[in-house]
Amino acid sequence: MKVKVFTASNMQEAMAQVKGDLGRDAVILHTRRFRRGGFLGFFGKEMVEVMAALDTPPPAPVPERKAPAPQVLVPPRQSDDDAKVTALQLEISNMRKLVEQVLAKLPRQEKQRHPLYELLVRNDIDAVIAENLVQGLPEEGPLTGTNPAFVRQLLLERLTNHLQRVEGIVIPESGCKVVAFIGPTGVGKTTTIAKLAASFAFGQGLKLAVVTADTYRISAVEQLKTYADIIDVPLDIVYTPDEMKAALYRHRDKRLVLIDTAGRSPRNHYQLAELQALLAVDPYIETHLVLSSTTKYADALETVNRFSVCSPQKFLFTKIDEATNFGTVFNLLYQFPTTLSYITTGQNVPDDIEMANPAKLANMILRD
Ligand SMILES: Nc1nc2c(ncn2[C@@H]2O[C@H](COP(=O)(O)OP(=O)(O)OP(=O)(O)O)[C@@H](O)[C@H]2O)c(=O)[nH]1
Ligand SMILES: [Mg+2]
C-alpha cells in the first residue's frame, strides 16, 4: 500500500493532488485542517492536510463456494480479505451473467425447465441461482408419480440451507459491544437503531448509548435525539474519527453502543473512504450493512460491492413489508458468505423488527 500526505490551501485542491498523484482509486485515510504561519497558531493561513493511500494488492485466488459453514463470529475487520472476496464474488457473478447472455443468443434446443424454476424466477431469484437450486430435483406430476408437495418441500429445504447464517447482536458476558449501521440513504438505518435501542433498553434492561456520525442534516440528528430522549439513552454526536474514539471511550461502561451513520451513495468514493476512516478507530466495531429488500438485485449487488471497503460483517434487510418478493434478499445471501442479522417489517418503533427466521424466509421466497 502506498500512503502519501498532501497539503493544500483548500479541500478541492488537496483532492485534485490526491487524484493526480494516486489516481481515482485512492482511499482517503485522514483529513485535518491547520494554520500555517501566524502567531501562536493565530492569524495563520488555514491549510488542509489529506492522508491518502493506494492499495495495489496481488491477485487473490478465486474462492470456492462452500456449503454454509457453522456460524462463527468472524473477528471484525481483520484484514482486507473480506472486501477482496466480496469483489471477486461480484466479478464471478458478472461473468456468470455474461455466459448466460451468450448462451441465450445461441440457437436454442428446447430445454425442459423444472416447473419450480419458473416460480423461483418469477420471485426474482437470479436465473443462474434458480437453475442451481432446482438441479437434481425430481420432476413432479402424474407421469413421474412424484407428489408436487414433496418436491416443493425438497426445494424449501434447499432454500432454508442457504439461509442458515443468522445472528443478531450478541452481547458479550462482559465489556461493551459496539455496532455500526451503514448503508445507502433512506434504507432505514436510523429507524432500525431506534427499534434496537428500545428493545435492548426496555426488553433486556441493558445499559446502552447511541452515537451518531450523521451530521450532514440537522434533521438527522434531531430524528435520533427524539428517539434517544423517549428511550432515555444518551446520544453523542461525532464529526471526526477522533471524536468517535472519544465517544466510544466515554461509553466504555455501557454494554452496547449503537452507531448511526449518514446514508452514503455507493458511487461516492470520498464519502465511503470517510465512513471507512470513522469506523477504523476501533477494530472491534461490528458493522451491519443495511439494505432495503425493495432494491433491485443488480443495484443491491453494486451497493454491497462498494460498501465492502467498510468490511461489513452482517447484512440487515429493511422494508420486508414493502417488498413484492424476496429475490434480492435470497440472491445476496446465496452469493455472499455473510451473516443475516435482522429484518424489519414496518415503520413502527420498536415493534417492526425481528430476527431473521430461515424457514419463514424460505417460505416467503416460494410464494405463488
Ligand atoms: N415500510 C417500511 N418503512 C421503513 C422501514 N424501516 C424504515 N422505514 C422508513 O424509511 C424511511 C427512512 O428511514 P430512516 O431510518 O430515516 O432511513 P436512514 O437509512 O436512516 O436514512 P438516511 O439517514 O437519510 O440515510 C422512514 O420513513 C422510515 O419510517 C421498514 O421496515 N418498513
Ligand atoms: Mg438516518
TrEMBL record:
Residues 176-367 form the SRP54-type proteins GTP-binding domain. InterPro entries: AAA+_ATPase (IPR003593), FlhF (IPR020006), FlhF__GTPase_dom (IPR047040), P-loop_NTPase (IPR027417), SRP54_GTPase_dom (IPR000897). It is a peripheral membrane protein. It is found in: Cell membrane. Gene3D superfamilies: Flagellar FlhF biosynthesis protein, N domain, P-loop containing nucleotide triphosphate hydrolases. It comes from the Bacteria. Pfam families: SRP54. CDD domains: FlhF. Keywords: Bacterial flagellum biogenesis, Bacterial flagellum protein export, Cell membrane, Cell projection, Cilium, Flagellum, GTP-binding, Membrane, Nucleotide-binding, Protein transport, Transport. The keyword Signal does not apply. Signal peptide: none annotated. Its main location: membrane. The keyword Cell division does not apply. Residues 59-80 are annotated as: Disordered. Residues 175-321 form the AAA+ ATPase domain. Necessary for flagellar biosynthesis. May be involved in translocation of the flagellum. Belongs to the GTP-binding SRP family. This is Flagellar biosynthesis protein FlhF. The lineage of its organism: Bacteria, Bacillati, Bacillota, Negativicutes, Acetonemataceae. The gene is flhF.
